[in-house]
UniProtKB/TrEMBL annotation:
Cofactor annotation: Zn(2+)
SMART domains: Lactamase_B
Protein name as it appears in the record: MBL fold metallo-hydrolase
Boundaries of every Metallo-beta-lactamase domain copy: 13-195
SUPFAM superfamilies: Metallo-hydrolase/oxidoreductase
């Protein structure tokens, strides 16, 4: 059974997710830890729970979701996965990081590209990769059908959606991604977003103001 631990990091209040199962293997999703205290919070949790991180996977590569990747790659000697279309988004971070108060950005190397329709595995667990562009050109989400959850990044939020005014964003594309890739999932699937609290597919289909 998958255990989902949420950490809220950096000034953007970004949700970093640590997923683990009964084997003790774990994956880190969208590590936004920036300062030493945030990094220590995550790594201490991993150590105290005797977990073994095996991969870092990202929904997309905006600054608030990538700040901790390089340090975690080095500490655990594990690969980093990103969709190919978001590679330019990652490479752009160093050009604007200082504008948001991040004096240093350690750009990680991408070890493998995520591809829609394939799966990411760890331990006894499999996460299906779905392509949900609109907030970012290479944005993906990770779906677990067995436990009915989605790690959704900045696509669908509680009563909101991801912003589309950043480079590579497109409002119509985002709405289409949500309708065709997320709202086609069963209503009881829980969505763990990149910011704010979790929600469900059914609740957002009924109440989200962008889809009334």
């Amino acid at each position: 059974m998958v255990q989902i631990q949420t950490f809220v990091f950096n000034p953007f209040s970004e949700n970093t997710y640590l997923l683990s199962d009964e084997t003790g293997e774990a994956i880190i999703i969208d590590p936004g830890c920036y300062d030493q205290s945030e990094y220590k919070t995550l790594t201490d949790y991993i150590a105290s729970n005797n977990l073994t991180p095996v991969k870092i996977i990202n929904t997309h590569a905006h600054i608030d979701h990538v700040l901790g990747i390089a340090a975690l790659k080095r500490k655990y000697n594990i690969p980093f996965y990103l969709h190919r279309l978001d590679e330019p988004v990652l490479k752009a971070v160093k050009s604007y990081a200082s504008n948001y108060g991040f004096a240093v950005f350690d750009e990680p190397e991408i070890d493998q590209y995520l591809k829609e329709g394939e799966s990411v595995t760890f331990g006894n667990t499999s996460l299906k990769i779905i392509f949900v562009p609109g907030h970012a050109p290479g944005h993906v989400a990770f779906v677990n059908d067995e436990q009915k959850f989605v790690i959704g990044g900045d696509v669908l939020f509680h009563l909101s959606i991801g912003r589309t005014d950043l480079p590579g964003g497109d409002h119509a594309t985002l709405l289409s991604s949500i309708r065709t890739q997320l709202f086609t999932l069963p209503d009881d699937y829980q969505v763990f977003p990149g910011h704010m609290q979790s929600t469900t597919i059914g609740f957002e289909k009924k109440h989200n103001p962008f889809f009334r």
